[in-house]
Specification:
By secondary structure, the chain is α+β, with helices and mostly antiparallel strands. It has two domains: 171 residues, Probable tRNA modification gtpase trme, domain 1 (Gyrase A, domain 2); 75 residues, Elongation Factor Tu (Ef-tu), domain 3 (Beta Barrel). It is 19% helix and 34% strand. The protein contains seven helices and 17 strands. A six-stranded mixed β-sheet has the order 8-9-10-7-1-11, with no helix packed on it. The longest helix has 12 residues. The radius of gyration is 19 Å and the shape is globular.
Length: 299
């Protein structure tokens, strides 16, 4: 873990606002997590799926007012999410608005970050901050905090050292936390392949939501055969999309890369075979060594 504390502006993230008396009920029937658990003190991580249970979009949900939710989502997909949600609006008393111009999103991280910003070591713990919101990353507290601020403001903690997005991505990959922008495939990825269960992105008690049937079936029948896993690269630089092989068989693919670290989608059987035979997976001329994070539970 990094001994200093850092901050970075996440320029690829944006905010979608959902406001109205039916905001909670509307989202509750659509997304993978329990929107009823969202409060001024608690935020969540969730996904929107296809009716067949395949990944479409992910976001963080923050309560801005009693009937207003802010969705921290990928900027490039915001208009798509907005259009998708409008399809399901029907007679629900909700208003959907692109709030990109009103907000900026930052991340803060480091070994002592939660102590510095006075937040507990509880994923999703949330408080007001400079007219916006600061939350412990709902996926894992080791990811630090996410901050939604009004446009024009910046993080005002002098102890947080500004760094590049690349520096932040290296930290993320080192912890084994997937980022949908790089690591997940729309209409293909299953949530359990991407660690959504361990990363607090699924509620198993909330009842039905779009894609819930496949998600539940893959969990209770143990159908997951692939996982996104962090890996160490030994050898020349490799690019995202590079196939991973074992005995000349394709067993996975590199997704995101930061220096000698990568996030890869791997067949679990190949990881087991590689370990048993003490034979490295390969990508081009490089060896690929999977690393199972402490938070990750494999079947």
């Amino acid at each position: 873990m990094y001994s200093e504390s850092y901050c970075v502006e996440l320029g690829t993230r944006s905010v979608l606002e959902i406001n109205g008396l039916d905001s909670v009920k509307f989202l509750q029937g659509l997304v993978s997590n329990d929107v009823e658990s969202v409060s001024p003190q608690n935020s969540i991580y969730a996904a929107l799926l296809t009716p067949q249970g395949k990944f479409l979009y992910d976001f963080f949900i923050v309560q801005s007012d009693e009937n207003k939710m802010l969705l921290d989502c990928e900027r490039r997909h915001l208009k798509e999410i907005l259009m998708k949600l409008k399809i399901y609006k029907l007679r629900s008393e909700v208003n959907l608005r692109d709030a990109s111009d009103d907000h900026k999103i930052f991340a803060g991280f480091g070994e002592k970050i939660l102590e510095l910003v006075d937040l507990p070591k509880r994923p999703g713990a949330t408080r007001l901050y400079r007219g916006g919101y600061m939350m412990v990353d709902p996926r894992n507290e080791l990811m630090g905090v996410r901050i939604i601020l009004p446009s024009g403001l910046v993080v005002a903690e002098p102890t947080l050292k500004p760094v590049s997005v690349e520096f932040y991505q290296r930290m993320r990959i080192g912890l084994g936390i997937p980022d949908a922008a790089y690591d997940l495939e729309q209409n293909k990825t299953i949530l359990l392949e991407a660690g959504f269960d361990e990363l607090n992105g699924i509620s198993w008690d909330k009842g039905c939501y779009m894609g819930q049937e496949l998600t539940a079936r893959t969990k209770y029948r143990g159908l997951i055969k692939k996982r996104l896993m962090p890996c160490k690269i030994v050898g020349p630089e490799i690019l995202p999309g590079t196939p991973i092989t074992l005995d000349e068989r394709n067993v996975g693919e590199i997704r995101s890369v930061a220096g000698d670290q990568a996030m890869a989608l791997l067949k679990l059987a190949s990881v087991k075979d590689s370990n048993a035979r003490k034979e490295a997976l390969t990508a081009n001329e490089s060896s690929i060594i999977p690393i199972q994070p402490d938070w990750m539970k494999l079947q």
